[in-house]
Amino acid sequence: MSFAGRYLDLLPSPVLPAQYQQMLTALLATGNFNALYLDQQRTVVDRALKLHTGYARTGESPTLRPVARFAAQAVASELRFLGR
User: Fold this and answer.
1) CA separation for the pair 29, 38 (Å, rounded)
2) pTM of the predicted protein model
3) How far is CA 26 from CA 21, 40, 48, 80, in A?
4) What is the mean pLDDT of residues 59-67?
């Protein structure tokens, strides 16, 4: 998968995006870490589900579409565990 990701230029950036840096900063400052962490996880996992589901349906790479389908199933399970 790493080779396919490099070939298609789909590897993630080594720099944390600003919105995720803000989430980390909020976690460090909160008085209710557990509740905020769970809320943030629900948001991030929901985004991941949409990403993988979308790629599984319309992704450019026939090699990566089945990987995205598998990932979507795993992420959906995690989202159910988180209460969504």
Assistant:
1) 15
2) 0.74
3) 9, 10, 21, 24
4) 96
| Residue type for position 36 | L
Q: Which residues have a Cβ under 8 Å from the Cβ of 53 and sit 6 or more positions away? A: 68, 72
- What Å distances lie between residue 7 and 17, 26, 53, 58, CA to CA? 23, 36, 21, 18
What is the domain partition of the chain in residue ranges? 16-81
**Secondary structure in 3-state letters for the chain:** CHHHHHHCCCCCCCCCCHHHHHHHHHHHHCCCHHHHHHHHHHHHHHHHHHHHHHHHHHCCCCCCHHHHHHHHHHHHHHHHHCCC
The 10s digit of each residue's pLDDT in 32-45 is 999 999 999 999 99
